[in-house]
Design goal:
The complex is a heterodimer of chains A (about 450) and B (about 475). With about 450 residues, chain A is α/β, with parallel strands linked by helices. Chain A contains 15 helices and 22 strands. The chains are: A alpha/beta (about 450), B mainly alpha (about 475).
């Protein structure tokens, strides 16, 4: 597909990496030649230097022939104008704009037709939703939802005192007593697809599929007591904080929000009357103590500086806070975060990228294209959701008789409202939703790609 | 430095060269020239064996590939290609000296067309074909060909940009379409199309098929190896005019042809480099025709010879229809001037390039005005687009490197005791990939007058000129090989 990416910032360049790896024809637009030079050297793309909202530059980027325009500059207004202009030049183009300002996001949704928008993405709101979901089950480092919420993929860390430590996967079911499939384990930065004899060790991250109903059961049997989260401290008063506080307050959770800027505090106090807004430096341990960090159920660090977030998170961990969630802006240094033992990491920009990549894949709209795609373990594995249709091979055959490609695993089959964790005697029928996980570099575009040729 | 990745790429280039030797082998077999055929077979086998070894050693490797690797790869691959390419000449004893054989094939690949042979017609047809084909392959660049044919996996990324930039001439190299593979294919498609057209027009003029193929290949690469001792002189006026037109066409920036293909005629006709290029051609033809008006019989013949020589020199081809060494010195000076300027950027021709000359003139004009208005901020524009200071800086650096290398080369080859005109024109003709110079290396003479050392200097000059200096200079820089 011919795709134009306007804005070669962090999101733009991450999208460039992902989409060029999938073989799309990319043209980048940015007003800074320097960032474009870097992208040209790294990826197989073309670049146009200039203002992406101007007709002239869009024409130079061959907007007439493009299938999709993704506007991810740092200014909402430019993104919107860019999409409008592109739409007026080419009626058939799909457009995606990043809209971050909370004041716009609602009206943009209502005015999508006016702006010629196909999709608007809001990384901060997505991050807030993601954090809220994590707060529901504090033991999981990450949760990804598939099949309209009927299947979950969860990431769990094996601690020293965990019941899972030093257990072979064959014996797993005796301990957890529910239907859960462990399909990937990350140990020291590398991801392996384990077999039955694989023994879990301290520090492993396991990735498993389960239905939402079994999640509570799983945690209970693992001996992880889930406290209901009642009091949350948010450090930093940015957009994520605003969205998150709004959502948490609705569910009756007490929110304490620490923000450095006095004016912003007043703004927030006005917008969030039920929250407790504190004016002060969140990196000050004295302030955190006086706000009762030790008694908080969760601490979420959302300041603009990654380093600051990490340091506050480490301090919160030390104070014995059960759940700590850290927001990071840079996508690259995941392995560093891991070695620090920070707990859950949320990266708004990555969420935004995943969302857009998902849209692009859906647009390709080949028979049996993936419905949703999630990156797992820093992108070392991918989970893809497909719908089984008439074209799918091997319908109705037992899984143990089907040869799939290396590094491909079918991790769940959803039929109607029921989700099954498959074994050798399972099979899939037309209309089923199935989720597969692949590690390695194979790009799976459609369901039939998973079978051995 | 990722040596294994370089090795892997080398293996692919070698294999490509072996494949391209096959037609020459077939021609030799068809001509029943056993010694030529055997020398091609040995060369091909040798390449295949070395490729196999390289493949084994460099089989699995990471795909790390940065500017450093790209530049080294270009420099090394051209040297390596030349060494393999000269094997057939050397093994068949048609060119007995190794350094002569190397000179001949480097002159081929770099599209110079400077020969050390006094009797070209003495070569067998297989060798003649291989000589002319080396022009064609070297003209657009073998790495660009590689980019067009090898499947680039999704994750290979932008490293290919380094290869294109190092091998395509011009100050500001860009892609035509987002995908590198597509860009390389479009370039080669235009190239092949024009070559075939050239061949057809030559055939219409009753040139024999073999000669038409060789002449078309030599014209396309703007090389200049002919199959006859007197180059193009003995062909009919029609054939000479066909050559003139096609030489000029191959000296045009290939992105202009792409713009024509996608029907953006306005952008082509307003291209400033194109104006300069054709302006220089027309101006030179008029001046030379006036200057040599007494030497030829009719006006038509005068213009034909003037046009042919101007086209041949500005596109750095190096064919000749007349001995321009006998022309008055004003005409010779014009030709020397054209030698240095060269063809358009992004064409198969060599030289400084019209695009670069245009940039230099414009930035010089800017600097002069800057002295008068110290506080005025001025930018250099080309086709209405601003040229970044970095590009201008690189162009200055290129000019300095160009002048320094030319001066030192003249100094180096002076040890052979040839005349000053010979030495200066030989270095300029080799460095700008033209071929014939003046005096002892004039249109009717050849480079056999020089000694081994001078030939080696000229070989390096040709490579440096074709690859735009830096990929070759880098190979001799310590910091390329040692990471500090």
């Amino acid at each position: 597909m011919r795709i134009i990416i306007a804005g070669d910032g962090k999101v733009g360049s991450t999208l460039t990496r992902k989409l060029s790896a999938e073989g799309h024809d990319l043209t980048l637009i940015d007003s800074k030649q320097r960032v474009l030079d870097t992208s040209i050297e790294r990826y197989d793309v073309m670049a146009v230097n200039g203002n992406c909202a101007s007709m002239e530059i869009l024409k130079q980027a061959k907007v007439m022939n493009a299938d999709l325009l993704i506007a991810v500059t740092n200014a909402d207004e430019v993104n919107l104008l860019c999409c409008m202009t592109a739409h007026s030049l080419n009626k058939n183009i799909h457009t995606i704009a990043r809209i971050r300002n909370p004041e716009y996001s609602n009206q943009v949704y209502k005015m999508q037709d006016v702006f010629g928008l196909s999709l608007s993405v809001n990384p901060e709101r997505q991050a807030a939703v993601e954090i809220e979901r994590l707060l529901k089950y504090p033991a999981f480092l990450r949760r990804d939802t598939f099949a309209k919420g009927r299947v979950e993929i969860v990431e769990l860390r094996v601690d020293e005192d965990s019941k899972l430590c030093n257990v072979a996967l064959n014996d797993l079911n005796n301990i957890i007593k529910c239907q859960v499939l462990v399909f990937a384990v990350r140990r020291n930065d590398s991801v392996v697809t384990p077999d039955g004899n694989f023994v879990l060790r301290e520090g492993d991250h396991i990735f498993a599929t389960a239905s939402p109903q079994t999640l509570t059961l799983l945690l209970k049997n693992l001996g992880i007591i889930t406290h209901k989260t009642k009091r949350v401290i948010l450090c930093g008063g940015g957009r994520v904080s605003y969205y998150l506080a709004q959502a948490l307050l609705k569910t009756g959770i007490t929110v304490q929000l620490i923000e450095k800027d006095k004016d912003r505090c007043i703004e927030l106090a006005n917008e969030l009357p039920e929250a407790c807004i504190v004016h002060g430096d969140a990196s000050s341990q004295h302030l955190l103590q006086s706000e009762g960090i030790s008694e908080a159920d969760a601490v979420i660090t959302l300041t603009g500086l990654d380093e600051m977030n990490m340091i506050i998170s480490l301090y919160a961990k030390k104070c014995g806070v059960r759940q700590v969630i850290t927001k990071v802006g840079h996508i690259d240094n995941n392995s560093i975060h891991d070695s620090l033992g920070l707990g859950s990491i949320v990266c708004p920009k990555e969420l935004c990228c995943n969302n857009i990549v998902r849209y692009v894949r859906a647009m390709e709209n080949k028979t049996g294209a993936a419905l949703t795609v999630h990156n797992i373990a820093d992108g070392q594995a991918e989970a893809l959701e497909f719908r089984v249709d008439e074209e799918t091979l091997h319908c109705g055959e037992l899984l143990k008789n089907i040869k799939t490609r290396k590094n491909v695993l079918i991790v769940s089959i959803t039929r109607g409202n029921k989700t099954e964790i498959p074994n050798g005697d399972s099979s899939f029928e037309i209309g089923d939703g199935i989720i597969i996980v692949t590690s390695g570099n194979a790009v799976i575009h459609q369901l039939n790609d998973i079978f051995e040729k | 430095m990722n040596y294994k990745m370089i090795g892997k790429l080398m293996a692919q280039i070698q294999l490509l060269e072996a494949v391209f030797m096959v037609p020459a082998l077939i021609i030799s077999l068809y001509e029943r020239n056993i010694s030529a055929a055997i020398s091609f077979i040995i060369s091909i086998l040798l390449i295949v064996i070395i490729t196999g070894i390289l493949r084994l050693v460099c089989g699995n490797t990471q795909k790390r590939f940065y500017a450093r690797e790209g530049m080294v790869c270009v420099g090394l691959s051209w040297i390596m290609m030349s060494i393999y390419g000269c094997l057939p000449f050397y093994l068949s004893k048609e060119i007995p000296s190794f350094i002569d054989a190397l000179f001949e094939i480097v002159s081929g690949f770099t599209t110079t067309g400077a020969s050390i042979l006094s009797n070209v017609e003495g070569l067998s047809k297989g060798m003649l074909y291989w000589r002319s084909f080396s022009h064609w392959l070297g003209g657009m660049g073998v790495l660009v060909f590689l980019l067009a044919v090898i499947p680039t996996e999704g994750k290979s990324g932008g490293f290919t940009m380094h290869l294109l930039r190092a091998e395509s001439p011009g100050p500001n190299v860009g892609k035509l379409v987002p995908k590198m593979r597509q860009t390389a294919r479009i370039l080669y498609l235009i190239y092949i199309l024009l070559t075939v057209l050239d061949f057809i027009f030559l055939r219409i003029g009753n040139m024999s098929t073999f000669e038409a193929v060789c002449t078309a290949l030599g014209t396309a690469g703007t090389g200049g190896f002919g199959v006859k001792n007197d180059s193009i002189a003995s062909y009919s006026p029609y054939l000479q005019n066909v050559c003139t037109v096609f030489m000029l066409l191959f000296g045009v920036n290939f992105s202009c042809y792409y713009l024509l293909l996608i029907k953006q005629f306005k952008a082509v006709f307003q291209d400033e480099e194109l104006h300069l290029y054709f302006g220089l051609v027309l101006g030179s033809i008029v001046l030379i025709a006036w200057n040599v008006r007494d030497m030829y019989g009719s006006l038509g013949e005068t213009v034909r010879h003037a046009a042919f020589q101007v086209a041949s020199i500005i596109t750095t081809t190096g064919f000749a229809t007349t001995d321009f060494d006998l022309w008055p010195s004003f005409s010779k000076s014009i030709l020397l001037f054209l030698m240095v300027i060269g063809a358009s950027a992004g064409s198969t021709g060599g030289g400084l390039k019209c695009g670069r000359a245009l940039l230099l003139i414009k930035s010089l004009r800017r600097n002069i005005r800057q002295i008068l208005n110290p506080q005025k901020v001025m930018v250099v524009r080309n086709n209405g687009q601003m040229i970044s200071e970095k590009v201008i800086e690189n162009t200055y650096a290129y000019l300095v490197a160009y002048v320094v290398i030319v001066l030192f080369s003249i100094l180096a080859i002076s040890v052979d005791g040839e005349s000053l005109t010979t030495n200066i024109s030989a270095v300029i003709a080799c460095f700008n990939n033209i071929g014939p110079g003046f005096d002892a290396v004039g249109a009717t003479c050849n480079y056999s007058v020089f000694g081994t050392f001078s030939k080696m200097v000229l070989i390096l000059d040709m490579l440096a000129g074709r690859l735009e200096i830096f990929p070759v200079l880098l190979l001799f820089s310590k910091s390329t090989w040692v990471r500090r």
